[in-house]
Specification:
The structure holds 2 protein chains of 2 kinds. Chain A has helices at 11-22, 34-46, 66-77, 93-98, 100-127, 149-169, 201-214, 224-234, 237-242, and strands spanning 2-6, 26-31, 54-57, 82-85, 132-136, 175-181, 218-221. By secondary structure, chain A is α/β, with parallel strands linked by helices. In chain A, strands 3-2-1-4-5-6-7 form a 7-stranded parallel sheet, sandwiched between helices. In chain A, helix 1 packs parallel to helix 2 (34-46) and helix 3 (66-77) packs parallel to helix 5 (100-127). The termini of chain A are far apart. In chain A, helix 7 (201-214) links the parallel strand 6 and strand 7 (218-221). The radius of gyration of chain A is 17 Å and the shape is globular. By secondary structure, chain B is of the alpha+beta class. Chain B folds into 2 domains: 78-190, Uridine Diphospho-n-acetylenolpyruvylglucosamine Reductase, domain 3 (2-Layer Sandwich), CATH 3.30.465; 196-414, Alpha-Beta Plaits. In chain B, 26% of the residues lie in helices and 23% in strands. Chain B has helices spanning 9-14, 41-44, 96-103, 121-126, 134-137, 165-171, 206-217, 276-288, 301-305, 336-349, 388-401, 416-422, 426-436, 445-451, and strands at 22-23, 31-32, 34-37, 51-52, 68-71, 78-82, 87-91, 108-109, 144-150, 156-160, 180-187, 189-190, 196-203, 222-227, 239-246, 263-264, 294-299, 311-312, 323-331, 356-361, 375-383, 405-406. An 8-stranded antiparallel sheet of chain B has the order 17-13-15-14-20-21-19-22. A 5-stranded antiparallel sheet of chain B has the order 6-7-11-9-10. A 3-stranded parallel sheet of chain B has the order 3-5-4, with no helix packed on it. In chain B, strand 9 (144-150) and strand 10 form a beta hairpin. The longest helix of chain B has 14 residues, at 336-349. Chain B is globular and about 60 Å long. The two termini of chain B are 22 Å apart. The chains are: A alpha/beta, B alpha+beta. The interface between A and B is medium-sized, with 17 and 13 residues.
Chain lengths: 245, 459
Amino acid sequence: MNTIIVGATRGIGRAIARELAARGDRLFVLGRNADQLEKTAADLVARGHKEQVGTALCDLTDASTFAPALAAAKAALGKVDCLVITAGMFGTQDQLEADLSFTESLLQANFTGTILLCEHARPLLLADGGGTLCVLSSVAGDRGRKPVALYGASKAGLSYYLEAMDHKYRAEGMTTVCIKPGFVRTGMTAGLKPPPFAGDPEPVAKRVVRAIDRGEPLVYTPMMWRWVMLVIRSLPRFAMRKIGF
Amino acid sequence: MASTGLRTTESTALAPSGDQPTIEPWGRIGGRGVERFGEDLERLSAEPTLCRGLGRSYGDSSLPAGPIAINTTLANRILAWDPQTGVLRAEAGLSLYTMNRMLLPHGWFSPVSPGTQFVTLGGMVASDVHGKNHHVAGCFGHHVRALRMRVADGRLLEVTQTQHADLFWATVGGMGWTGAILEVEVQMTPVPSPWIEQHTEQVGDLESLVARLKEVSRTWPMTMSWIDCLKRGKHMGRGIVYYGRWAQPDLAPKTFPKWNAEVAVPIDAPSWALNPLTMGLFNFGVYRSHIPRHKHGIVTPETFYYPLDRVLDWNRAYGKSGFTQYQCVIPDAAGMGAVVRFMEALTQTGAASFLCVMKDCGPEGQGLLSFPTKGTSIAVDIPVKSGTAEVVATLNKLVIGVGGRVYLTKDRFTTADDFAAMEPRLDAFREARAKWDPQLRFASAQSVRLLGDSPSGAA
């Protein structure tokens, strides 16, 4: 499988890239920092990627980078079977409320930028037969919640977009996979107190790859979050106002 | 997180209290601190702070003096790997576990391996780890070609055995006190097969065991021994000598060895679980299981190198009170009598448990604080109780008297005075540290205890 990964330099994206490289998939990685991309490419080759891994700069807060990055990937891979987007931003509610320029960047990256990148990639995937569009959203978007009001809003919008893509384009061959990770111990969540059922990147990556292979439209990982969020979605508003979750 | 629940007055004074966040080392006696995780060590280390990896050092060497420690384990990329030459360069958080799984199938292995693979490259350098092949291969630092470091003034430096050589040799075995190790370049070792040819011999007393250990070391590249240190009288020091080498292809199975499926210890053992009766039964079982007296066979590297890794969190067997490991080296110059006196003292204190390991060490390396020197290394796990500090002080007195020293990676109870008395290279290390970290920003709880650093930390 020929896969473009956005966000492979760290966290869950790094783990997914390693998983795919180890099983022999061909990869092209996109990211914001050339030095980090180069190091990640070397890591993937050492971990089993059969050839040099191509890289290109791509910044979710700058839509002008999308077309050249995807063109470079297409030129290197030939056929594109899958686009995985794991990049995104995170901030606590306190941080975001205190800094509206940070909020603007986060909303831009997680919602507008991610969706625009998907829109740039969609024709490319459909032209090669459809393939898979796999994007990491979050359980934070499942319900309006006090601790993640702004971050959750960006992911809620993204999740709805991904569901609609699956409805609209599956018949044309493009499978859309929406991944909703719960708390995963990565650099992005460093400094936050891990809740129960916190996961690690490697098992989450294995689950993501399985979802891509099976074409599953929606996956919660670690799996316990599916049931946790089912309960949260069922709570009445007066209860949501009272709890801190 | 909860406090560590120590029972002894002295240890409680050393442990955090209330709901303060704690970091727990392998010996389970935690200290105050928060770990800062991240994939980008260059950014994380912009504010110089002690680094820690997988937390397998037993004592307080990975506990920060200040409130923060940088955890390197997410920085685990392989930056360059040449399968022709065996030169590996990787970020400091790469684990030996991952290295083994990636490189052994291609015929390469770490030049030196400690007794667990749950360690990081950065930790292997900071501890200058030694292994079963120390008498022929030296310590890990001897095989390190280069380090990329963040030093206290904020500079990022490429440090080698010839470039900033004083920093290199102060960092190798320097317990993280000279700077943050960001990347490590090391020469791996080619192996003829992924299997080990192992021999084991039952030996009935201490003098015979030490003699046999030294004898097999003359011809075998990997040696160590397990001792029943609960046995007294004429059978004191009885044990089993292990020796081996990488199996030649004609002896090795044609298949690649299966990796271990680790099992976890789900709960903390009660404090009474390890008592003289249970430990005595365990030791009796291990000793008697080696019948016939001399056994040999082909085993997996994990069986040979990492028998304890099969049980994840085996430190929970010591309960919440935790344990320490006393590891010292008795120089050959002190003679066999010194080893006998040490073992007698050990059995008389009643502190020893089931894990007691002896290894013959090769010559001292160039690391300014590297542990091994030509002699006999003895390591014993000691459950922490009231009086553990006194036991360590008693053993230290003996070790100092014969010109030996302790392994800082295992140490938790040695005093500053004892450390100074056993470490003639300390002035040279202090000099290098004063040059590279004059404000002592890379301080740990251990450097507070042994070197007199500020307990608040500079970070």
